[in-house]
Amino acid sequence: MAVRSHPPELLAPAGDWNALRAAVANGADAVYFGLDRFNARHRATNFSHEDLPKVIRYLHDRNVKGFLTFNTLIFSDELEDAAAYIREVAEAGIDALIVQDVGIARLIHRIAPDLPIHASTQMTLSESRGIQFVREKLFVQRAVMARELSISDIRKIGQETSVPLEVFIHGALCVAYSGQCLTSESLGGRSANRGQCAQACRLPYEMIVDGKSKELGDRAYLLSPQDLAGYDQVADLVDAGVASFKIEGRLKSSHYVAAATQTYRGAIDSAREHKAFELSQEASHNLSLTYSRGFIPGFLEGVNHQQTVEGRVPKARGLLLGRVSRQQRNGIIVRLEDSVSPKPGDGVVFDLGKPDQQEPGGRLWAVEALGPNEALIRLDVDFDSSKIPNGCRVWKTDDPVVKKELEQSYQNDPIYHRVPVHVKAVGNVGGALTIFLSDDTGLRVEVSWPGPLEVPRKHPFNGELLREQFDRLGDTPFQLGLVEIDCPQPVLVPKSILNDLRRQAVQKLCELRIAREAKAIAEPEALKTLRSEIPKAKPSTRPPSITVLVRNLDQLAAVLEDAESVSMVYCDFEDLRKYKEAVPLARAREIPIGLAPLRIQKPGEEGFLSPILHAQPDAVLIRNLAALLYFQEKLPSARLIGDFSLNVANELTAAFFVKSGLERLIPSFDLNWEQFQALMRRVPVEWFEPVIHQHMPMFHMEHCVFAAFLSNGRDFRDCGRPCDDHKVELRDRVNADFPVIPDTGCRNTVYNSQAQSAIEYLPQMQALGLSRFRIDLLRERGTEVQSLLTTYRRVLAGQEDGKETWKKLRVMNQLGVTRGTLKLV
């Protein structure tokens, strides 16, 4: 369905001015960047609000678009600031906003309808149904694909939707689905959905299989993916209809941006010209030296669990120089990799297999070639080479010559992209000369010289002279295209006049281009209007009730034994086929039952939804936009409950989902207590069903640790399904064990080792008007389930004090409980 009307775009990152310059000079068609608020890379330098007009002017003067990242969840108390921010950036002339929060997308369109909205990868868009939904409901003009999609997935999505697709093509891979990682929030209150990722995926873990440590040799970084490098896949992606190729890296250096932009400029241009692209040795080395944790095609060629995570190192290594062959008194002899040669001044590090410790290395002081593949290297005289073992890998981590060459690529701010302009001269003898200058977007200016034009004695004004004088466009964003002269008689025009007219025309055309940049503000008070559309809250008359999410039939049976205290039970089973057994069990006890589909849906996976249709539950937990549309159409009798993965963090988002057909919502797990209260005070509280007890789902990922480390299989077809036979935890450096649970789609979720409890807050939640509360089980057994339900039921009934019961829970649970994301006020 998608029709590409423009050549594919190269989109580069910029975390500071040098990176911005590097992207522009090396061929980026667009640059994405963040300001100091509301963006998902708080650790980047970013740009200030004062910088914004200068950044936009710099980009537009070089025919490059600027996309601003607004890709975080926004809390209720921040919406006024967010609205002011939208007005400010719209008037500044930004070309698009990259957005995660669906409520913010609604607000942008109401404030500035002409400001394009790009759905961030944080929206977790992985199939066409949800993408078309945000196009129609949120007026999204581009969708940034989840990084876990293959080329065939992307091609299928492109065929099924009219929305232009943007694909990550190079850079770091998150192990978890973007927008679905709660690890930093769970462990330290630093939300990845708020740009504060602590990168727990890059830490070492021990694999515990059935209670015993699994020997994995030197592989300890079990959740640390290698980096994406998709230059070989560009041609196929162009053929699949991809509109934009995105380089990851707002935290990276200008050298990285320059090297990556050069590479993908070449790959895209080759694909457009139907030429084969082959990465040069120099370009390959530059990519590795500027940043590399090892390059793979990511998921573009499909799932490959033996490739995604190498497991030996979590950080950039650079370029493999070779291996230590032997020691000599005057240095170290290294057997070199093909095509790699060291030189004095290069930085090196010796890989002792302990990347979490300080590794030996430094600058090369001298290099002596001993043959075609061997060299003697010497470091500083104080360097102790006696501890460097034979056979260890040597990495080239820095090359000052390469850095200097990359810096030179943007040193003088060259203009890579120029817009063709059409010049037309009109005049008659005795009259004025008028010059019309127009660009390819339809902008047109005219300038005149009153003359009068004279009959030439020799050298009449002609196209050659006009082209010669108007081709001097120097540091302007233009290049000369079509040249026309409409002079019925020969005339004389001095060169100086033509030069002056050229300068005037170019200036006026530039001014017109600037004037059209600002986006009109259609509804300055849009936030107030949207809030006024939300129904007023009514005092709740419902007695408090508990809903429970169970993971298996045994837990379901335990809950149904105490059915009087439960108003609904949700099933979230690894094996969806067992749903047909679960529904009759709940019906027999007259307890409403809801079923959970997979958290992620990819093209071709609607079959995973059919077990829910066949089971005919009372309700469905909606975990993604595709499921919302699917079950509205296929199971109209079911009540639809929006789960936490929809990331409802403010009243605009909540109202959108309720209006779209959801009966109740689980609030975002990113909310702390103050933010939670702020949301509840602005909505009908009957919309919400907070989770008050759970093991926080931290990483939700395509990467399967069962297949990767308990098999040699690439994917579910040849892994042997070790997940059917083994129970796995990942043990961190403080001996906390994090359960790993697979789902039917072979995706893994890593859960917090400790349960998070809101039991101290229950009286305050009830005071807000909340009456329905959810408990999520994980691996609890029958008696534990019943004891847990009894404890929460008594506190809700006012029979026990929340603070005292908190202490009781800490004793009941083997690992205790945590307040997690909540904070007492």
Automatic annotation (TrEMBL):
It holds the Pfam family Peptidase_U32. InterPro entries: Pept_U32_collagenase, Peptidase_U32, RNA/ubiquinone_mod_enzymes. Transmembrane segments: none annotated. Residues 394-514 form the Peptidase U32 collagenase domain. This is U32 family peptidase. It comes from Telmatocola sphagniphila.
